[in-house]
Structures are given as C-alpha cells and as structure tokens.
Design brief:
This protein has helices at about 20-30, 35-45, 45-55, 55-70, 95-105, 120-130, 140-155, 165-180, and strands spanning about 5-10, 30-35, 80, 110-115, 160. The chain is an alpha/beta fold and about 190 residues long. It has a single domain, classed as Rossmann fold (3-Layer(aba) Sandwich), CATH 3.40.50.300. It starts with 6 loop residues before the first strand and ends in a 13-residue tail after the last helix.
C-alpha cells in the first residue's frame, strides 16, 4: 500500500459479523469497504461452484491471488473483510501465503471478530448464524468447521473482538482499538476517527 493509507482488516469465522461490522466502520470513517468473498464472486463466480469444480486447494490459491490484487489496485484507505478460512489455509496454498498471512496477523489494524472467546458458546452461535444463511452447510459440517478453526482464530496475534452484542458496540470498540494502534507521530498509517 502507498504511504498514508491504512488498511483495516477483519478476520474470523463465518457468521462472526465481519461484513456487517466492516461496512459500518467503512461508512463511519468515509473509506472504501472490500469484502473478499464478494470480490472473489465478482471475478470468478460462485464460491461453492468453484470449490466443487476445482477443489478447495485451488479455491484457496485463487482467493489468495484475489487478496494480493488488492494491494495493486491503489484502493487507498479501506476496510477489508477476509474469507472465513483465509487464515486457516494449508501452508502450501500459495508461494506467498506464509508471508501474507504473517503480515495480516501482525498488522496493528487487523482484528479477529469472533462471536465469543468461550469455545462452546462460539461454536453454538456460529452454527446458528451460519444455518440462517442461504449457502449454509448441514449443521454437523458447520460445527466441525468451527471446532477445527476456533483454536486457530484464538491463537492469532491480532486482537480479538467478541461480536455477540449490537454491531454498533462492536464498531465502537474497534474504532477505539484502531485509534490506540495509530502511530503518535510521523507514521504513514493515519485515519481521522471521530
């Protein structure tokens, strides 16, 4: 990214509120909002169809390429939400995945959105939220996915924000965290937060 631009990145399980909260933060800050899943669909087509046709590994590779393209587009300041599995891909998903993942995880403006840090509560809430979506897997598969990914999300270095509360409260907490993460002088990453 160009100096003077800030990328706020939201990661976490499906149904954690990344898209809802990301759009609200972007609107409040007056910056662009990019949902990686929506961008993938606009460029490649339906995610489930892609996975069924080419396999999950090919999807992960293509999704990483989609993410990489963001930095080349000169989007300026933005809020980006990553796909629920982005931080859980196999290390061989893409030659640059390890470094991209590390950069995302350690950015001062990356946050893990998660329904709850209590494992069982998170699993129950995630399954409930996912089943309300039109593209949901069966309940057992949804539970298996969040059980597998939960320890990965909570082990990430990025700050965790619990989302089992009104989206406006989540946005307020995120904006306070972003303000705290801003350099105090001379840095290139600044956003006016009111």
């Amino acid at each position: 990214m160009k100096p003077g631009n800030t990328s706020i990145t939201l990661i976490g399980p499906g149904g954690s509120g990344k898209s809802t909260v990301g759009a609200l933060i972007a609107e409040r800050l007056g910056i662009a909002f990019v949902d990686l899943d929506v961008l993938f669909v606009s460029r490649t087509g339906d995610i489930s169809t892609y996975i069924n046709r080419f396999g999950y590994h090919a999807y992960a590779q293509k999704n990483i390429e989609t993410y990489r393209s963001l930095s080349g587009e000169g989007c300026g300041s933005r809020v980006a939400t990553l796909s629920s599995g982005f931080m859980t891909y196999p290390h061989d998903a893409h030659p640059e995945y390890a470094s991209l993942r590390r950069d995302v995880e350690h950015s001062p403006t990356t946050f893990v959105l998660i329904p709850s840090l209590d494992r069982e509560r998170c699993i129950a809430e995630t399954v409930q939220r996912q089943l309300a979506r039109p593209f949901a897997r069966d309940p057992a598969r949804e539970e298996a996915v969040i059980r597998e990914r939960f320890p990965i999300y909570v082990a990430l270095a990025a700050p965790k924000i619990e989302t089992m509360r009104p989206p406006s409260a989540v946005v307020d907490e995120l904006l306070l965290s972003i303000r705290r993460a801003q350099p105090t002088s001379g840095g290139g990453q600044t956003i006016s937060i009111s």
